[in-house]
Amino acid sequence: MKYEILRRTAGFRLTILAILALLLAAALLAGLRFGSLRLDAAEILHTLLSEREGVKYQILWNIRLPRVLLGALVGGSLAVSGAVLQGIMRNPLASPGIIGISSGGGLGGVLVLLALPQFSHLLVPAAFAGALATAFLVYLLAWKRGIDPVRLILSGVAIGSMLGAASSTILLFNAEKVAGILDFTVGSLSTRSWPQFRLVWPYMLGGFLVSWLASSRLNILMLGDEVAAGLGIRVERVRLLLLSAAALLAAAAVSVAGLLGFVGLIAPHIVRLLIGSDNRFLVPGAALFGAALVVGCDTIGRMVMDPSELPAGVIMSLLGPPFFLYLLRRRSYAA
After folding, report:
1. What string of H, E and C letters represents the secondary structure of 188-227?
2. 2-330: CATH number
3. Predicted model pTM
């Protein structure tokens, strides 16, 4: 009871956010340090600040640094997307992967890779279009005088499975044209570097800013449409804005990391347990924890089978299903 009161105070929530920021810093440092060549913190700082050539510099600057930074962006984007979707739909099981948004974004990205490979700058917009269309389709299928949690999850799973099957079929019949098919389907940061980072960071920053700036309205929206409308919120306009931001974040993440699942489900819930459901704090908290989670999983994947590596998506797939089953047992839903 005392903890419930404590975690509603701004000071406590800001302290938790500071701790999550330190956790992310530790994950980034571990990502830079560990690999085939292990470096300590002093070597990392000296190499990045003082050297401009050599093996250590090439490994840190061209391989590890862009990879960990991109992993942080991907994890933060998926986590914020999940937090926003859970608020919009008032459903704790909503996330980009579970309700099919990631699959829609993946299909859009695959079509660009195959049909317009010379226009790689269109990858994120195409993934965004696929993700947003999927989000609206799932929302419409789940709507029947209101959003039903069971119908939402079942609609998302069905649409996500269909889109995933379509993507897999296209990739299989065009295997010679697309590199890294397996990495894309399981979610991986392998071989990612500065070009991918530069491609997606503006989209991710924009999606995060919209989500954070609209977090107060999201709090009101979670009270129900009638209450929100009574408080002066333009419900459908705010919902459309937030849904677009969530789709953009998920699409940008999918376009560079593939179908990395469960981040949007796990990260918001763990942060919500720590600081409550106020989205003004939940959105940045989910971003920090999601970033640390993906960077940590990617680092573990590089270490467990050194010199080979496991994709980050494999590590997340080992962590995600038990947590998903825990949520199902913790809450009961009526059809």
Report:
1. CCCCCCHHHHHHHHHHHHHHHHHHHHCHHHHHHHCCCHHH
2. 1.10.3470.10
3. 0.89
